[in-house]
Inverse folding.
């Protein structure tokens, strides 16, 4: 009976699997084949040895790491509050988190350009409050890119942590406090360790999405902040160098798979902290 049910489920999933193989697996394999055109690894050597491309990859990793760290610091308190909020607070909080998904990333990015420009809302407010005399450069630099990316990716950090916190039995914390542990110790010894799988999943998701981000850094960076996705697009659009763009894409894919492998190896375990 179980075998028949499994075969039925596999049969139902077969069209989706075929679609995924056709729309994802084949293009990826074609991309990898293009990167070693003629059986040569010269494009990978260029990506690995040329200082320009190495620095762009390093900057992309650095920006993705900073965005992930900021999102984690901002998202954990929100997820913790959501896991303990009442029905009204939970509904309002989830609505606020889901609302950005109903707005185009392009629209949100242009909105930040209006807010962060030299004569934008933020600079006018700071001048009106007497905090600055000259406009602060919040746009077309790393700061603007970080602000825009954190705004877009924050929900992707909140939801995995929130899901992990929902699985933490609240009686554990109450039992610890009943035995004399202060609230902060109950949190650091029980709640935080048990929520680490959600933290790991959220960090991996945000980091990978940040690494391949294009629209937000392209607009808010103004061409002064270059990430690897922008470099790949440039190789195709300006230089028509498809094999080298494919090699850069393969490098980005390898980094992404490596991150997921590390998370799967080390991030899927949680335990109560020992005294």
């Amino acid at each position: 009976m179980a075998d028949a049910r499994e075969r039925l489920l596999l049969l139902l999933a077969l069209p989706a699997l075929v679609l995924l193989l056709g729309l994802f697996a084949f293009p990826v394999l074609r991309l990898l084949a293009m990167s070693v055109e003629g059986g040569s690894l010269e494009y990978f050597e260029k990506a690995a040895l040329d200082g320009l491309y190495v620095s762009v990859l390093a900057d992309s990793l650095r920006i993705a790491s900073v965005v992930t760290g900021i999102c984690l610091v901002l998202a954990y308190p929100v997820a913790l509050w959501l896991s303990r909020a009442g029905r009204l607070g939970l509904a309002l909080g989830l609505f606020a988190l889901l609302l950005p998904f109903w707005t185009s990333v392009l629209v949100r990015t242009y909105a930040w350009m209006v807010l962060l420009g030299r004569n934008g809302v933020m600079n006018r407010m700071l001048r009106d409050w007497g905090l600055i005399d000259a406009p602060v450069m919040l746009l077309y630099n790393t700061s603007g890119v970080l602000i825009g990316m954190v705004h877009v990716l924050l929900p992707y950090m909140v939801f995995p942590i929130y899901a992990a916190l929902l699985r933490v039995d609240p009686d554990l914390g109450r039992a610890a406090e009943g035995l004399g542990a202060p609230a902060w110790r109950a949190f650091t010894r029980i709640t935080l360790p048990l929520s680490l799988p959600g933290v790991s999943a959220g960090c991996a998701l945000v980091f990978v999405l940040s690494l391949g981000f294009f629209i937000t850094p392209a607009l808010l960076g103004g061409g002064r902040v270059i990430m690897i996705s922008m470099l790949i697009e440039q190789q195709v659009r300006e230089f028509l160098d498809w094999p080298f763009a494919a090699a850069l894409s393969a490098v980005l894919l390898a980094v992404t798979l490596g991150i997921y492998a590390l998370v799967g190896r080390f991030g899927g375990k949680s335990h109560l902290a020992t005294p």
The first helix runs from residue 2 to 35. The two ends are 48 Å apart (CA to CA). The chain has two domains: 1-35, 41-266.
